[in-house]
Amino acid sequence: MHGAPSLLVQEPLPPEYAALTDAELAERTARAKAALGKDLVILGHHYQRDEVIRFADLRGDSLKLSRWAARQEDARYIVFCGVHFMAETADILTRPDQIVILPDLGAGCSMADMAAVEELETCWAELVKLYGDKLLPVTYINSSAAVKAFAGRRGGAVCTSSNAAAVTRWALARARAVLFLPDEHLGRNTAVKLGHSFDEMAVWDRGAEVLEPDPHGAAAGIDPERVRVILWNGYCSVHQRFGPEQVARIRERHPDVRVVVHPECRWEVTRLADAVGSTEFIIETVTASPPGSKWAVGTEINLVNRLAQENPDKLVMTLDEIVCPCVTMYRISPQHLLWTLENLLAGRVVNRIQVPEDIAADARAALDRMLTIA
Ligand code: SF4
Questions:
Q1: Which pLDDT band holds residue 322 (cuts at 50, 70, 90)?
Q2: Which residue in 212, 138, 122 sits closest to 177, CA to CA?
């Protein structure tokens, strides 16, 4: 099989949930949460909508949330309002008796789904022909547990958007070449940051199953003596939307604006931005800026809108005028959250995310390696 991983199937919610008003949903959710008490922790990713995130005990990016969950000694249930790979990571990092739940099983991540482990095996076999055992995988945390386990088994590591440079530098110090997956743009931005030229990069085309020179470079053909960073051609459907023309347009309208973008954006965008960094970095940068600052932000719209609300003394706007929510995150609705909690109250666990122990052990090795590096 060479396609994307099949999505888990979410059972339809009982019709009564669709009939609830916003006020009823909020009231019942608050009541269920209070009744579950310290047995329950609700985690909310920054990209969640307001109606969901207001019930979160902690907001953050995926790693911050999972590490925090692992420290919650009392919590039996960890309801992760995020996407599938995040719930998997939380399950890997928490105790076996703690139960991780994803309120809607259809909440995947289009980027993580672009790297199936079977496709990765094919790619790896081709790269081994060029590099032998002088090759290491670095997988972005936005990947399935199976892909993290693949990296762990081969001595590689996981990275986040905050520590991608440190982890990639570590890997390049130990191997002739690094396969960076699944985000081509984060991989390219990281390699540029580390001082590598485009001629030292190549792109694995997962559809055609061929290795191509980086389209930004001048090199023809692949010379393993020269190419050190191999980029898997996956991307985030939210961040890939941003283009250099949007940066030019916003600067024309607001000459004093500063542009901050996520490193999942294309290199053509990151090179024009004033600052590039993770969601946590974006939040800290905007929050710490002086009153009157103007920011154009290149990331998911729910986060941008919340930043604008929480910084009324600044002008915070999206870089993309056409709203771009993460549609899979958006699947976590207030109705799904309530359904999950009310089932727990009734003694039923729905939508448990459980990574098989053999995969979890290898994935944990890749995560632990990251934590020792950065
Ligand atoms: S914003 Fe992009 S990378 Fe993040 S969960 Fe959504 S699709 Fe995946």
A1: confident
A2: 138
CATH of domain 242-318: 3.40.50.10800
**Minimum CA distance residue for ligand 1 atom 5:** 109
> Ligand 1: distance of its center to the CA of 28 in Å?
29
Q: Quick: pLDDT tens for 146-201.
A: 999 999 999 999 999 999 999 999 999 999 999 999 999 999 999 999 999 999 99
Type of residue numbered 141: I
Q: What is the pTM of this model?
A: 0.95
Q: Which residue has the tokens 């959250």?
A: 337
CATH 3.40.50.10800 domain residues, the chain = 15-108+329-356, 112-236, 242-318
Residue whose CA lies nearest to ligand 1 atom number 3: 236
Which residue, 324, 145, 367, 351, is CA-closest to 236?
Answer: 324
Class of domain 112-236: alpha beta
Compute, in angstroms, the gap from residue 332 CA to the centroid of ligand 1.
Answer: 13
Q: Which residues pair with 258 in a beta bridge?
A: 295
141 CB less than 6 Å from ligand 1? no
Q: Whose CA is nearest to atom 6 of ligand 1?
A: 326
Domain 15-108+329-356 in CATH 1.10.10.10? The answer is no
Find out whether the peptide bond into 291 is cis, omega within 30 degrees of 0. Answer: no
Strand 210-213 versus strand 201-205 pairing type: antiparallel
